[in-house]
UniProtKB/TrEMBL annotation:
This is Exocyst complex component Sec3 C-terminal domain-containing protein. It holds the Pfam family Sec3_CC. Residues 288-641 form the Exocyst complex component Sec3 C-terminal domain. Signal peptide: none annotated. It comes from Hermanssonia centrifuga. The lineage of its organism: Eukaryota, Fungi, Dikarya, Basidiomycota, Agaricomycotina. GO terms for cellular component: exocyst; plasma membrane. Residues 53-182 form the Exocyst complex component Sec3 coiled-coil domain. Residues 8-19 have a biased composition (Acidic residues). Belongs to the SEC3 family. Keywords: Coiled coil, Exocytosis, Transport. One of its GO terms (biological process) is exocytosis. Residues 1-20 are annotated as: Disordered.
Length: 665
């Protein structure tokens, strides 16, 4: 065989192998395609796009499975992978442990955070306190050095001339004063070894100064006596004040009739003279003893440190002994004043007790001023007289009430207006002239209460005096209303002219009593001349409550014939005759009544007819007769429409009859 033949043979074998490989691949592809229900013809013929997507997905899944298999085979072939995984598990376990420990630390830190904050704040406070204590220690050291009194200063206080060495004495006294003020502080006193010695020097210096001033005052007083002025006028502020008050007392006791001034005005002048003297004298004592709030202490005068000023101010308060001293001085100067004031007031009230109101007003005004000034002496003086005068006034009111209750006036004998009713408006007018501008004072309320008590007593006494006995047209019953009408008319007419707010309440009460009594009186006096027709139609009114109007005429007592009989008795002539008789009777009842007339203004505000009481009563009678006449006509129209019966008089006849007796107002 030649080389060419071998070559051809080799190529032939290689070609067969390639064909087999290609055939195997094609077979695999066809198997795969068959899995997707593709035929070779479909593949070659271009199947739908959805099958292509499935092929792609299948290839990707196969590729992923192949990669996993490769990785798994790689890991299984290397033992170090397990070691690494073990180390990772251990590290994760350690991290979990660290996390739990850190959480525990966090919980503990949160628990102690408040304590840490408190400790920090305490630390800042301690720092501030330390700084303050250091500053305080420095101040105390300086203060301790200040309150030590030099021996030379003590010698000055005991030996220096009180007349010539005033400046040196002030400087030495200042050192001793500072030491004594510091000694008032218990803590400071414990650090001062020589405190008792300082107090001894203080007592000695004060006694030395007191003796010196006593000698000087005695000597100066003797000089004035030698000059001839001692016997002419009192010396000193105290003496001048006492002399001035004595002169005022002389003026008080002098007659005031020539000056024709009211006693309360004179009392006001007296207090205006006395009050400034009392105020100025107490102010002088306060300034002299350095006990007023505005006074300078010795520490202020010498310009000492704030510590000593505070100590001095703290010890400058009024003690009971100091107050007693001031009270004693005021009693010594003005001891005569309470008795003199009482004598003057009693003398004034003996002439006219009604002026007690004005005097109480004066006292209360000066009391308010004294309380604002805080003058205890003058307050006590005025309060004593104020309480006494209030008691006298209340006693006087009680006497008024007792006299009202004892007044005798029976309903069997009319005496016109009661005396206490006549006097009360005058009493109120005089009292109110003394109360001008005193609405805020206590006496205003006291007087209002007294008004109420007196008015209640007067009204009760009037009703008791005019007590009604029995029912019907009894003379005592009629006189009861006459008495109340007369008195209440006079009371309202007089009191309405006084523009006083406190009387409005019992003025309304009086008006109500007047209206009630007037209505009752008018009904009683009209019943005598018009009794038949009034009784008839009152029966009709009672029957209408249970019977229909059309059935009234069917009743035997109130039939058509009964109505005609009653109506015939009251024609225009009879009305005129009955009104004439009525006027005589009313005029007789009120012939002794007060001629006090009410004005148009009072009438508009109270509803009482203007004019005298007789005018008001007569007008009320006319109005009542007109009212019942109109009512009679309505009832005839309502109940007797088919009978053609009417009244034989009308409202014009009534007005004409009353006009004949028109009373001048």
């Amino acid at each position: 065989m030649t080389f060419k033949d071998e070559k051809d043979e080799g190529e032939g074998e290689g070609g067969e192998v390639g064909e087999e490989t290609a055939q195997a691949m094609l077979t695999s592809v066809e198997e795969m395609l068959e899995g997707y229900e593709w035929a070779s013809g479909d593949l070659l013929g271009g199947a739908g796009g959805s099958t292509t997507d499935q092929i792609e997905a299948r290839l990707l899944d196969e590729l992923m499975a192949l990669e996993k298999a490769n990785i798994h085979s790689f890991i299984e072939s290397d033992d170090r992978v397990n070691i690494v995984l073990k180390y990772l598990d251990d590290a994760i376990t350690e991290l979990d442990g660290l996390d739990s420990v850190i959480s525990s630390y966090k919980i503990h830190l949160n628990a102690v955070s408040d304590d840490i904050t408190f400790i920090q704040s305490q630390d800042r406070g301690l720092q501030v306190q330390t700084q303050n204590q250091r500053a305080l220690l420095t101040e105390l050291e300086e203060l301790l050095q200040t309150v030590q009194v030099d021996r030379d200063a003590l010698l000055v206080l005991t030996q220096e001339s009180l007349e010539k060495g005033v400046e040196r004495l002030e400087e030495a006294a200042t050192q001793l004063y500072k030491a004594l003020q510091a000694g008032r502080d218990r803590d400071m006193a414990a650090t001062m070894e020589r405190l008792e010695e300082y107090r001894t020097y203080n007592s000695q210096f004060c006694k030395r100064l007191y003796d010196f001033l006593s000698i000087m005052c005695t000597a100066q007083g003797g000089d004035e006596d030698n000059d001839g002025f001692g016997n002419a006028t009192p010396t000193g502020t105290t003496g001048r004040a006492a002399a001035g008050v004595r002169r005022a007392g002389t003026i008080v006791r002098s007659p005031l009739e020539a000056r024709r001034e009211r006693k309360e005005q004179a009392f006001m002048l007296v207090l205006e003279r006395i009050a400034p003297m009392v105020y100025s004298e107490e102010e002088f004592i306060a300034d002299f003893l350095q006990i007023n709030d505005a006074a300078l202490t010795f520490a202020d005068y010498m310009g000492l440190e704030n510590y000593f000023r505070r100590q001095a101010a703290r010890s400058a308060g009024l003690s009971s002994a100091t107050l007693k001293l001031v009270r004693g001085a005021m009693d010594l100067i003005f001891g005569f004043l309470p008795a003199e004031l009482k004598i003057w007031l009693d003398a004034a009230l003996a002439k006219d007790q009604l002026h007690i109101i004005g005097m109480v007003v004066c006292l209360e005004r000066f009391l308010n001023d004294a309380e604002e000034r805080g003058n205890a002496f003058f307050i006590g003086l005025l309060e004593k007289q104020h309480a006494r005068l209030k008691g006298l006034f209340e006693r006087r009111v009680g006497e008024h009430i007792k006299s009202v209750e004892e007044t005798k006036l029976t309903s069997k004998k009319r005496n016109g207006v009661a005396p206490f009713i006549k006097y009360f408006p005058t009493y109120v007018s005089r009292v109110e002239t003394q109360l001008i501008g005193s609405d805020t004072l206590e006496i205003r309320q006291i007087v209002d209460v007294s008004y109420d008590k007196i008015v209640q007593a007067m009204f009760a006494a009037l009703k008791q005096m005019a007590k009604m006995d029995g029912e019907g047209e009894d003379k005592g019953q009629l006189n009861y209303h006459v008495i109340l009408i007369e008195n209440m008319h006079h009371f309202v007419a007089e009191m309405s002219q006084l523009d006083i707010g406190s009387v409005a309440a019992f003025l309304q009460k009086a008006q109500a009593i007047y209206d009630e009594s007037l209505n009752a009186y008018v009904k009683i006096v009209l019943r005598r001349p018009f009794s038949k027709i009034i009784d008839y139609f009152e029966g009709v009114e009672r029957l209408l409550k249970t019977t229909a109007p059309t059935e009234i005429s069917s009743n035997g007592t109130y039939s058509k014939s009964a109505l005609k009989k009653v109506v015939k008795e009251y024609n225009s002539k009879d009305i005129r005759k009955n009104v004439d008789a009525l006027f005589k009777r009313v005029e007789k009842h009120f012939d002794e009544a007060s001629e006090k007339a009410t004005s148009e203004e009072v009438s508009s505000s109270t509803g009482i007819a203007p004019g005298t009481v007789l005018v008001g009563v007569w007008k009320a009678c006319e109005e009542e007769l007109l009212r019942i006449t109109e009512l009679f006509g309505k009832r005839i129209t309502q109940c007797y429409a088919s009978t053609a019966v009417t009244l034989e008089y009308n409202s014009g006849d009534v007005e004409a009859a009353f006009k004949r007796h028109r009373v001048a107002s």
